């Protein structure tokens, strides 16, 4: 099911055990937050982190930011309690790591309904294993409650026994398969994180690659990554002006099937692309 567009350029993870980070997030210009109970939280700290993130998600203190809780994966000792508490807190989304199949999506949705999650609480499924990449098409289409696919590129690199290299050649097949699955199902898709929080040049290059591949946005781990990511995943001024030109040229053509703008062929499909650029630009501007 296709949803109205909402900006998800930048979605920041933060450990649920880090109260300072949960507080700081209220001031950051992110589109979304993932309050983490999984990898960023040590086993002993998980019960306390669960209380922190549920209180934060229920607080309405994050304004327009989309607030999600990442629970521990199905089959772990913390999953059931995390899911029940997250459903009661009613965040915008519940992020489930290491989702393995369409059946798992359906059973997660059934559990969310059993735990009384409000309708606004959507499921975000992480794709971070070879099986999930190969089943991404079925996972993406398994439930109307599923709104976002999130790449977990650290786990994926580990599972593939691949290497982190500039340009991500070992991951390109997987990244594109997940984008294809998301687009066919009409759900959003977020790129994985960039682990080096001081290498801004490398980070910006990876954002541009994510845009080129078709991602809606990128998951982040540090506040310093937010602004460059927002810039990369929003249309540039030149793209907005070009889109306005395409729409105007089409309107002036009064029903001709093909025209040119700036020397380039414009058909109806290019007008649809231009209209989407303008809609994204407007949605992004309404955030600032
Ligand atoms: C990576 C970090 C551990 C770095 O922490 P630190 O060295 O403390 O950073 P700074 O000193 O530069 O922090 C400056 C200020 O910013 C705040 N801060 C830092 N990170 C965050 C954050 N993520 N959210 C909000 N605020 C943050 C600090 O508190 C400082 O504030 P102040 O004192 O007021 O100046 C750290 O950034 C971090 O923990 N990042 C998140 C790590 C995480 O969540 N990892 C799990 C998800 S990644 C993943 O596994 C995805 C997937 O599953 C996969 O497989 O790929
Ligand atoms: Mg992971």
Output the keywords.
288 residues, alpha/beta, TIM Barrel, 2 domains, eight-stranded parallel barrel, 12 helices, 45% helix, globular, binds ligand LIB3CWND, binds magnesium ion, magnesium
Structure description:
This protein is α/β, with parallel strands linked by helices. It has two domains: 223 residues, Phosphoenolpyruvate-binding domains (TIM Barrel); 49 residues, no CATH class. The chain is 45% helix and 16% strand. The strands form two sheets. It has an eight-stranded parallel beta barrel, surrounded by six helices. It is globular, with a radius of gyration of 20 Å. Bound molecules: ligand LIB3CWND and magnesium ion. Magnesium ion binds next to helix 7. Keywords: Lyase, Magnesium, Metal-binding.
Which percent range describes the beta-strand content? Answer: 15-25%
How large is the count of helical segments? 12
* Number of DSSP E strands: 10
Major β-sheet profile:
8 strands, parallel, barrel
- The CATH topology name of the largest domain reads TIM Barrel
Oligomer: single chain
The first-level CATH class name of the largest domain: Alpha Beta
Which CATH architecture of the largest domain would you pick?
Alpha-Beta Barrel
Overall geometric form: globular
- The stretches of 5 or more residues where confidence is low (pLDDT under 50) are none
CATH superfamily of the largest domain: Phosphoenolpyruvate-binding domains
Q: State the order of secondary-structure elements, H for helix, E for strand.
A: EHEHEHEHEHHEHHEHEHHEEH
Helix/sheet category: alpha/beta
Mean pLDDT: 96
Number of domains: 2
CA gyration radius, whole angstroms: 20 Å
> How far apart lie the N and C ends?
28 Å
């Amino acid at each position: 099911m296709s949803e109205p567009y909402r900006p998800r350029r930048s979605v920041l993870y933060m450990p649920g055990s880090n109260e300072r980070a949960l507080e700081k997030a209220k001031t950051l210009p992110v589109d979304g937050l993932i309050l983490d109970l999984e990898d960023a939280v040590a086993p002993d700290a998980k019960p306390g982190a669960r209380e922190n993130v549920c209180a934060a998600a229920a607080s309405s203190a994050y304004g327009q930011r989309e607030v999600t809780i990442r629970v521990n994966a199905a089959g772990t000792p913390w999953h059931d309690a995390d899911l029940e508490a997250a459903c009661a807190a009613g965040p915008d989304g519940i992020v489930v790591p290491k989702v393995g199949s369409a059946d798992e999506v359906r059973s997660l949705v059934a559990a969310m309904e059993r735990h009384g999650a409000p309708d606004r609480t959507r499921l975000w499924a992480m794709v971070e294993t070879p099986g999930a990449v190969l089943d991404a098409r079925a996972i993406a289409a398994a439930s109307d409650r599923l709104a976002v696919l999130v790449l977990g590129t650290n786990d994926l690199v580990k599972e593939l026994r691949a290497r982190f290299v500039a340009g991500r050649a070992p991951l390109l097949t997987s990244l594109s398969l997940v984008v294809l699955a998301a687009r066919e199902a009409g759900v959003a898709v977020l790129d994985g994180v960039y682990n080096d929080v001081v290498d801004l040049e490398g980070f910006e290059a990876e954002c541009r690659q994510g845009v080129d591949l078709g991602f809606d946005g990128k998951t982040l781990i540090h506040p310093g990554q937010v602004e460059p990511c927002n810039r990369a995943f929003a249309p540039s001024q030149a793209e907005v002006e070009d889109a306005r030109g395409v729409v105007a040229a089409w309107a002036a053509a009064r029903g001709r099937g093909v025209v040119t703008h700036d020397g380039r062929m414009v058909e109806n499909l290019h007008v649809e692309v231009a209209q989407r650029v303008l809609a994204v630009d407007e949605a992004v501007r309404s955030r600032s």
